[in-house]
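This entry is listed below:
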Amino acid sequence: MLIANEWKDYEIIDASRGQKLERWKDVYLLRPDPQIVWDNGDLLEKYHSMINAVYYRSNKGGGHWENLRSTPGSWLVNYKDLTFNIKQMGFKHTGLFPEQAVNWDIMSEKIKNAGREIRVLNLFAYTGGATVACLKAGAHVTHVDSSRGMIDWCKENVKSSKVDETKVRFLVDDCVKLVKREIRRGNKYDAIIMDPPSYGRGANGEVWDIEKNLNYLIELCMEILSDEPLFFLINSYTTGLSSHVLENILKLTIDKKYSGKITCGEVGLPIKENDLVLPCGIYGRWESNE
């Protein structure tokens, strides 16, 4: 497991009974997490005096935030030389997955050491944690998401991180359709990142199903990889999907054409109170030997 343990502005204080207490700089949030099936006491009761806000799930789907103390509408957190905008979103999110810092570090190092200009395609790119990290490392990035709101949020992160805005292209688009157009146009990329949802809809209502569409999308992406690709990263939060599934797909596609290595596994976050680790998703990564 890759553990994101180099944060200063973020940490999981404690986790118990399906909830995690997190510190986002000076703001403390209590959010649900289905992985936390162990019992370490009632977190709301234990930490009530420090909690800014609690997210409550609804039996009908979704849920809502309840602010217990004054909570800013948005605020900034830093990871090394990156700066991100955090907000309380619907369905418990904050606009950032801090466990992905381990992948930001690996990608940044690969780009900095490449000794050449690197073009990155970030699909299902959300608010752009990976986009900002790659830009900071000096790459040119095409950032693709079907949500205009997520694109606008990434633009905020680009500005707050003070990276070169001329090196990023933002596209509100369906990822499969975008890759097909890039094939027709003859555009090539040295690195591809994707964080596909289990299910979703594209900019014009296109339906995405990870079980039916993931392998097809990766095969399409093979046609837009440059002659010297640097890395290909797949992240997933789909329940029940093993990291070895991602490894198998990479072995049957990219690894057959290019010389490199494949790694796969989980990403996680340390829990301060009891030295446990919270599993937060899986990854499969192909990378060149350079």
Observations:
- The chain has a mean pLDDT of 95.
- The longest strand covers residues 277-288.
- The two ends are 23 Å apart (CA to CA).
- Residues 53 and 67 are 4 Å apart (CA to CA).
